[in-house]
Specification:
With 193 residues, the chain is of the alpha+beta class. It has a domain at 137-193: Head domain of nucleotide exchange factor GrpE (Nucleotide Exchange Factor Grpe, Chain A, domain 2). The protein has helices at 2-110, 115-134; strands at 137-140, 152-158, 169-174, 176-179, 182-185, 187-192. The strands form two sheets. Strands 1-4-5 form a three-stranded antiparallel sheet. A hairpin with a 2-residue loop joins strand 4 (176-179) and strand 5 (182-185). Helix 1 (2-110) runs antiparallel to helix 2 (115-134). The longest helix has 109 residues, at 2-110.
């Protein structure tokens, strides 16, 4: 029995040692598990930060592309506007020449002098007007039309010779023109009252 007691004591001691070793191993495994959880949390945080930085970069890139697109479109519109403005200024400068041609033609019609002078002046006027029409210049037809402030500028009002001419253009003092649908110069007219 003494042997049995010794054996039991020995077994108990071994069991206690085994339990102590198991407890130490469990504690060590728990410590390693906690360390791994912390490393995992740190890695996840870094991954989220990297994803956020990448999303910010992508948003910055998209914003930059949109700004560039807007800049390109605005620049193209400004160039078109500048070209249109330059051609409008050029054509506007030629309008007095057209006026002079019209006056010359009117004077030549009244004159009985040379038929060749009439034809020459008419030829020059038609060539100039034809060229300007190709650039978008259109004459504003006003005589006999209802007075419209969008196209006409009243110089004076004159008693209408008949009832149907009231509020209409009786005569044109200066021809008006549009360029590309926009009024370049208003027609200066005499309106029936």
């Amino acid at each position: 029995m003494a042997d049995k007691k010794k054996k039991n004591n020995k077994d108990n001691n071994e069991n206690a040692e085994n339990q102590q070793v198991e407890c130490e191993q469990t504690a060590q495994v728990n410590e390693e598990l906690e360390a791994l959880k912390q490393q995992l949390a740190a890695a996840e945080k870094k991954a989220e930060e990297a994803a956020a930085r990448e999303a910010d970069r992508k948003n910055d890139y998209v914003r930059l592309m949109a700004e560039f697109d807007t800049f390109r479109r605005r620049t193209a519109e400004e160039k078109l506007s500048l070209v249109s403005s330059a051609s409008a200024d050029t054509i506007k400068g030629l309008l007095p020449v057209l006026d002079d041609c019209e006056i010359a033609l009117a004077q030549l019609e009244k004159s009985t002098d040379s038929e060749a002078a009439k034809e020459g002046t008419l030829l020059i006027f038609n060539k100039l007007m034809g060229y300007l029409k190709t650039k978008g210049l259109e004459r504003i037809e006003a005589k006999g039309e209802v007075f419209d402030t969008e196209f006409h500028e009243a110089v004076t009002m004159f008693p209408a010779p008949s009832e149907d001419l009231k509020g209409k253009v009786i005569d044109v003092a200066q021809t008006g023109y549009t360029l590309g649908g926009k009024v370049l110069r208003y027609a200066k007219v005499i309106v029936g009252a």
